[in-house]
Design goal:
Blueprint lengths: L15 E3 L12 E3 L27 H4 L14 E3 L6 H9 L42 H4 L1 H6 L7 E9 L1 H8 L15 E9 L3 E2 H7 L4 H11 L6 H4 L5 E3 L5 E7 L11 E7 L2 H4 L8 H17 L3 E7 L2 H4 L2 H13 L9 H9 L12 H5 L4 E5 L4 H9 L3 E5 L12 H9 L13 H6 L21
Parallel strand pairs: 3-7, 9-10, 9-11, 11-12
Antiparallel strand pairs: 1-2, 4-5, 5-8, 6-7, 8-10
Helix pairs in contact: 6-7, 12-13
Bound molecules: zinc ion.
Length: about 450
């Protein structure tokens, strides 16, 4: 299917106008797309006829080339998709509602990072970074010549700082596990951290390699399973960058980020996949929030010893199957014959979704490499999938820190028992879970009899 060749180069057309003619450097002149013209990207002269070259993995950002994925340069675009992940649809709504001028070009003055990240050797290795743009936070510096010339280039990473206030940190202070130092942890329980928000930027050849398929198969699968949302995946095999409409990730750092690449300085890390029900609302069916807040506590302790703690929060709700699928699975778990059980924990997801898990972890280590991580002293996770994914990219992991047993909610025993039986590593407290224990671990029943009732359907008028 991926056999169509790129359309012929187009020098100029009535749809575009050049805004600068001076040619005293290597920076091309931007061609600005007129917003009153709607062109289908499947038409041969409408999309990426003159894409700016990208040399993914090159250490010099100017040679690597800027990722052009804004609507103003349709001819010079070198990426499929749109900025801001799934939020790109809201931009469309804002324009439709007359609230946003489609010609708006952002002013990035004062938006640059508040602490330095990189460059690191890993930035030049596609096997280490292929799902984020390592220069995504320094666009305004690295590509200032492009911006000066009138290119609309967007940062895909923002780097800032925060004070965060969690009740669990206050409880840890009260219990004597955490001690305020007035610097990293304040008397009131607030901790001080640095953070970065990152949106995905995929280099398709390497993403395909990590998923063990050809690039053509990857492109066809995404095209097919999104009902053809991105025809350029098929029509433009020469365009290798894709900004997918999925959630990104957030990095929280306690301590001095400069210490992260130093293998002799302690580094504590958790990579956490979003679970809104537990993380935000405290649902007791899983261990997600307890794991997250336990990790934050360990990160603060490491930072207080002069090291660094990192939590990376991935928007991969419900094992990347989404919250609707997740709740459907909850109902299946609770209503099945014999009630919620560790023995059937994974089967239920597979019955509803056709697959146990779509998080995979092949792209997960990329933000660690972006930060320059080469060794993690304390890894806070029970997932061997995460552990193996990180170690296979060359990062060393010294210790695996288990979740204290008292932090596991009663109804989450089903989850943790099932996971440990299937090879997850939850440490000493959960060692030796056998089939008897698996079969004996049951969750709370629903308040009603557990039978599927007829849903309330509105009557016809
Ligand atoms: Zn959860």
């Amino acid at each position: 299917m991926c056999t169509s060749s790129p359309p012929p180069r187009q020098t100029d057309s009535n749809k575009k106008r050049k805004i600068s003619e001076d040619d005293d450097d290597d920076i091309p002149t931007p061609e600005i797309t007129q917003m009153d013209h709607v062109a289908l990207t499947t038409h041969s002269d409408a999309f990426g006829v003159d894409p700016l070259p990208i040399s993914w993995g090159h250490p010099d950002p100017l040679v690597r080339g800027p990722v052009i994925c804004t609507v103003r340069h349709s001819a010079q675009r070198n990426a499929i998709g749109a900025h801001s992940g799934s939020y790109c649809i809201y931009t469309g709504l804002a324009v439709a509602a007359g609230k946003l001028n489609p010609d708006f070009v952002p002013n990035f003055k004062l938006t640059t990072p508040v602490f330095k990240v990189g460059p690191h050797p890993s930035w030049n290795d596609p096997k280490k970074i292929a799902s984020i743009d390592p220069f995504g936070h320094i666009v305004t510096h690295a590509y200032s010549k492009y911006l000066d010339k009138g290119f609309d280039i967007r940062p895909t990473i923002a780097v800032t700082k925060a004070h965060i206030d969690l009740p669990e940190c206050r409880e840890a202070i009260a219990a004597g596990r955490l001690v305020p130092d007035g610097k990293i942890l304040l008397e009131g329980g607030q901790s001080i951290c640095s953070k970065a928000a990152i949106e995905p930027v995929w280099y398709l050849p390497e993403v395909a390699r990590r998923f063990g398929c050809t690039e053509a198969v990857l492109r066809q699968s995404i095209f097919r399973m999104t009902n053809g949302m991105y025809p350029e995946l098929i029509t433009r095999p020469d365009i290798k960058i894709f900004l997918p409409p999925i959630g990104g990730l957030t990095i929280y750092i306690w301590g001095d980020p400069d210490t992260i690449p130093d293998e002799d300085i302690e580094l504590t890390c958790r990579v956490h996949d979003e679970c809104n029900g537990s993380d935000v609302f405290g649902s007791d069916i899983c261990t997600c929030r307890p794991y997250l807040t336990h990790a934050i506590e360990e990160c603060i302790k490491t930072a207080q010893k002069g090291g660094c703690g990192i939590v990376i929060y991935f928007r991969k709700e419900g094992r990347s199957l989404g919250e609707v699928t997740k709740y459907l699975v909850y109902n299946t778990r609770k209503r099945q014959e014999g009630g919620d059980s560790a023995a059937n924990y994974f089967n239920c997801t597979e019955k509803v979704a056709g697959v146990q898990d779509t998080r995979f972890q092949a792209l997960m280590p990329d933000p660690l490499h972006w930060l320059g991580v080469t060794k993690i002293h304390n890894f806070i996770s029970m997932s061997d999938m995460k552990y193996n994914a990180i170690v296979s990219t060359g990062i060393k992991i010294e210790n695996r820190i288990e979740i204290p047993q008292e932090l596991v909610p009663a109804d989450a025993q089903v989850e943790i028992t099932a996971k440990v039986f299937h090879g997850y590593n939850a440490g000493e407290a959960y060692k030796g879970i056998d089939e008897n224990e698996l079969n004996a671990t049951k969750g709370r029943d629903y308040a009603y009899d557990g039978k599927e009732e007829s849903p309330v359907v509105p009557a016809s008028p």
